C-alpha cells in the first residue's frame, strides 16, 4: 500500500501543508509514522478523505449549478487572452492548470478576469489516467 507524506497529501488535496497537518492533528485523517519518524497517510485513507473534502466543499455556500459535468476544478483565473471571436482562459485549481478555449462572448458574459474565482468543469468521452 502506498503512503503519502503530509506535504504530498496537501499537494494532492490542493491545500497547504499546514492545513493538511491541522487536519491530521485533529484526527480527520489517520496517520502513522515510518521508521524515520515522518507522519504518513495510507493511500486508501487519503483517497477516502479526498472524497469527503470534495463533498464538503460542494455543500458549502456556493450555489451548485445544475450540470451533467461532474469533474469540477474550482480555482483562480490566471490568464485571459481575448481574440476577435475566440478566447483562452487559464485556471489554476490546486496543482492543476486548466486551459479552456471558448468564445469571446462567453468570457464577456461571465465577466472572467485574472484573479477571480472560477470553476472549470470537464466532461469528456476520453479520459486518460497515468500511474504516478
Question: What composes the largest sheet?
Answer: 4 strands, antiparallel
Order of helices and strands: EHHEEHEEEHE
Could you tell me the mean pLDDT?
86
Percent of residues in helices: 25-40%
As a percent range, the share of strand residues is 25-35%
First-to-last CA distance: 14 Å
Uncertain regions: pLDDT < 50 for 5+ in a row?
A: none
Name the quaternary structure.
Answer: single chain
How many helix segments? 4
- What class do helices, strands and sheet pairing give? alpha+beta
Total strands: 7
List the helices and strands and how they pair.
Elements: E1 3-5, H1 6-13, H2 17-25, E2 32-33, E3 39-42, H3 43-58, E4 71-82, E5 86-93, E6 96-103, H4 104-110, E7 117-122
Antiparallel strand pairs: 1-3, 2-3, 4-5, 4-7, 5-6
Amino acid at each position: 500500500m502506498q503512503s503519502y507524506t503530509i506535504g504530498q497529501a496537501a499537494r494532492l488535496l490542493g491545500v497547504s501543508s499546514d492545513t493538511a497537518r491541522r487536519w491530521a492533528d485533529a484526527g480527520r485523517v489517520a496517520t502513522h509514522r515510518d521508521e524515520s519518524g515522518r507522519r504518513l497517510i495510507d493511500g486508501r485513507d487519503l483517497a477516502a478523505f479526498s472524497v469527503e473534502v470534495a463533498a464538503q466543499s460542494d455543500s458549502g455556500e456556493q450555489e451548485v449549478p445544475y450540470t451533467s459535468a461532474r469533474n469540477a476544478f474550482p480555482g483562480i483565473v490566471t490568464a485571459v487572452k481575448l481574440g476577435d471571436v475566440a478566447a483562452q482562459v487559464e485556471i489554476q485549481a490546486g496543482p492543476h492548470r486548466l486551459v479552456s478555449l471558448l468564445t469571446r462572448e462567453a468570457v464577456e458574459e461571465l465577466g472572467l478576469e485574472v484573479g477571480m474565482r472560477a470553476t472549470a468543469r470537464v466532461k469528456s468521452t476520453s479520459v486518460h489516467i497515468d500511474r504516478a
